[in-house]
Write a structure and sequence with these properties.
The complex is a heterodimer of chains A (214) and B (220). By secondary structure, chain A is mainly alpha-helical. Helix content of chain A is 76%, strand content 0%. Chain A is built from 7 helices and no strands. In chain A, α1 crosses α7 and α2 runs parallel beside α7. The longest helix of chain A is centred in the middle third of the chain and has 32 residues. Chain A is globular. The two termini of chain A are 23 Å apart. In chain A, 42% of the residues are buried. In chain B, α3 runs parallel beside α6 and α3 runs antiparallel to α7. Chain B has 220 residues and is mainly alpha-helical. Chain B is built from 8 helices and no strands. The mean pLDDT of chain B is 84. Classes of the chains: A mainly alpha (214), B mainly alpha (220). Chains A and B meet through α4 and α5 of A and α6, α7 and α8 of B.
Chain lengths: 214, 220
């Protein structure tokens, strides 16, 4: 855990400085907004990673009945959804400068918005049951089920249809523009940094909840 | 195993005959909602296939949610105890899947016939559209059965089932709406290939997950 914390601090300081100061490819329309790659994309990577951990922990809970895993699964989902909301906000700001509007009817945008709705449903489900063990069991089952539907929504469906979003539906992703790895040297550390941050926040949340329970 | 599944299905059928008001209430739900659509589209009727397809699937979605949500509620608490001793969870969930599938097929075809009667239709390839309706009912029932089992365990359930099922069912509904739009313009195998494969894949995943997760959910 200590390693994760140190890594997260160093990499995020690096991302924040290098992300705004380093040279980026000059492209029409995109211009400087290409820097959103360092912040928007890692948010989604972190969200998917944390939600994956959440559903793995949910499965571990229903197979072992150890409430520690349920708590973890809930916290991972919570932090993951926060990152998802940040991802949507950064994406909207970027879209306003490049597409000229905050929101369009695009499969990728719809998929991610619906994906967040799935997890809001999960939180409502958790809050609507009083009995602790029942709550844990039901919400874990729904968590595993919901995650399996999130994958086609975010990764498969947008690739089958035309999409404005970079990297989908025949649109080039950043790796096409990134000829001399200018973007990569900031992008990959940013992804790792944000994932570490997510793990760190989840850890603190779990600890607080454990103290409250005791 | 097959005998047991058949006997549960037979029992469900018996209950359905005995409490026919539930069955007819779903039928009436479909008829009245379609009638509202019919009246609100007067005097011209639906002119474009896009409106037709989206309203069609939305009505099927709502009526199948109300149809499926009752499939677990008609089981009383005592009967669940009895099942717990006689049946394995797999047998119960498979029988529920089949039962819900049959029920949703009924809802879908009722909707289709009424839509055709009142509003006309834009279908060019009937054989494809009818097989699409069958696949669609199968996917909707696979998706909703586990959710209704979850909702059965929670008190404030009818609201919760719709909240939980809408986002989960959307990927399937997107594919179904897209495929129906294709079947109402020009139809060819190349256009639908990817979507059909994806739909079948999603169904396989859903059935497996339902089978695995229900055994955990049921163990009280």
């Amino acid at each position: 855990m200590k390693l994760i914390k140190i890594l997260s601090v160093i990499l995020l300081i690096y991302t924040a400085t290098a992300g705004f100061l380093f040279d980026v490819p000059r492209l029409p329309i995109l211009n400087e907004t290409i820097r959103v790659l360092y912040f928007h994309v890692p948010m989604w990577f972190t969200m998917i990673f944390l939600l994956l951990l959440s559903s793995i922990n949910a499965y571990r809970f229903i197979s072992t009945k150890n409430s520690k895993y349920d708590l973890k699964s809930y916290n991972y989902a919570h932090v993951g959804v926060c990152f998802g909301v940040l991802g949507i906000i950064t994406g909207m700001i970027w879209a306003n400068y490049t597409w000229g509007t905050f929101w369009t009817n695009d499969p990728k945008l719809n998929g991610s918005a619906i994906g967040l709705l799935i997890y809001f449903g999960y939180f409502i489900l958790r809050n609507s049951v009083d009995d602790e063990s029942k709550k844990a069991k039901i919400s874990s089952v729904y968590n595993v089920f919901a995650f399996s539907m999130l994958i086609p929504l975010i990764f498969i469906l947008p690739r089958l249809t035309d999409s404005l979003h970079p990297g989908n539906g025949g649109n080039p992703g950043f790796n096409v523009y990134d000829l001399n790895s200018q973007l990569r040297i900031v992008f990959y550390p940013a992804v790792i940094g944000f994932i570490c941050l997510g793990l760190w926040i989840t850890d603190i949340k779990s600890k607080i909840q454990q103290i409250n329970n005791d | 195993m097959i005998n047991k599944i058949l006997s549960i299905l037979y029992k469900d059928y018996k209950i359905e005959i005995k409490q026919s008001h539930l069955f007819f209430s779903v039928g009436l739900y479909v008829v009245s909602s379609i009638y509202i659509i019919y009246i609100s589209y007067q005097p011209t009727g639906i002119l474009s296939s896009e409106h037709w397809v989206s309203i069609f699937w939305v009505i099927i979605l709502f009526s199948s949610i109300s149809a499926v949500s009752k499939s677990f509620f008609q089981e009383s608490g005592n009967r669940n105890y009895y099942y717990y001793y006689v049946l394995s969870p797999d047998e119960l969930i498979i029988s529920k899947l089949i039962y819900n599938f049959l029920f949703i097929v009924f809802v879908t075809f009722l909707t289709f016939i009424l839509f055709t009667f009142l509003l006309g239709n834009f279908i060019t390839s009937y054989s494809f559209f009818i097989s699409l309706l069958l696949i669609g009912s199968l996917s909707i029932s696979n998706c909703l059965t586990l959710i209704s089992a979850i909702g059965h365990q929670v008190k404030n359930n009818s609201m919760l089932i719709s909240i939980l099922s809408f986002p989960v069912i959307i990927p399937i509904l997107i594919l179904l709406i897209k495929l129906s739009k294709i079947s109402s313009s020009e139809f060819s195998w190349n256009l639908i290939q990817d979507d059909i494969y994806l739909l079948i894949l999603l169904n396989i995943i859903l059935v497996f997950l339902t089978k695995i997760l229900f055994s955990f959910l049921w163990r009280n």
